[in-house]
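Lab notebook, bench 4. Still working through the backlog of constructs that have no structural model yet. Next entry is a single chain of 190 residues. Request: give me the C-alpha cells for it.
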Amino acid sequence: MPDREMTGRENNEIGLLFRALAFAAEKHQHQRRKDIEAQPYINHPIAVASILANEGGIANPEILAGAILHDTIEDTETSRAELAELFGDRIATIVTEVTDNKSLPKAERKRLQVAHGPTLSHEAKLVKLADKISNLRDLAVSPPANWAATRKADYCDWAEQVVAGVRGQNARLDAVFDATAARLRAMLAG
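Model written out:
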C-alpha cells in the first residue's frame, strides 16, 4: 500500500501529539511508578492516551495531548502558563482541571477529586476516567510492593466514587472502567 501524504490538519494533529509526548517524556524522565518494577513514569500518561484512543475511540488531539500531559503540572516543575504557551489554552485547561493541589493533605486531595468530578469539562472527565482505568489496571498487574489487598480495595472504592462523577461522557470507557474494577475486585477476593 503506497504511503499517502498527510493533510496540513492531520500533520498538525500528529505533530501536536509527538510534541506532547516529547515534552512529557522530558518532564517525567527521572520519575518512576510506584510498582514493584519501578517502571518509567511516562508509561502511565501514554497508557491513559492509549485507553482514550484505542478503547474509547477518542480522536480529538487536544484530549489526547491533555492525557499525555495530565500529570505534568501535578508531578513536575511545569506551570499552566508553560503548557498554554507550548500547547494552547484548551490543553492547559484540561491538564489544570485534572491536577491535584499537592499542597493539600492527601485525604483532602482525594475528597476533592470526588467532589469536583461532576464539575469538570467533558474533555477533563474523559482524561480522569482513562486515568482511573490505567491506575486500576496497574494495581491488578503490578501494584506497589507495600500495598495490602485492603489498600487496593480501598483505592478501587475511591476510584469508583471519582468515576461516578465523570460518567456519561463515553459509554465504551464507562464499560471498560466497570470491567476493570470488577476484575480487580475478583482478583482481590480470590
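Notes after review: The longest helix spans residues 8-27. Residues 97 and 120 are 7 Å apart (CA to CA). Flag for follow-up if needed.
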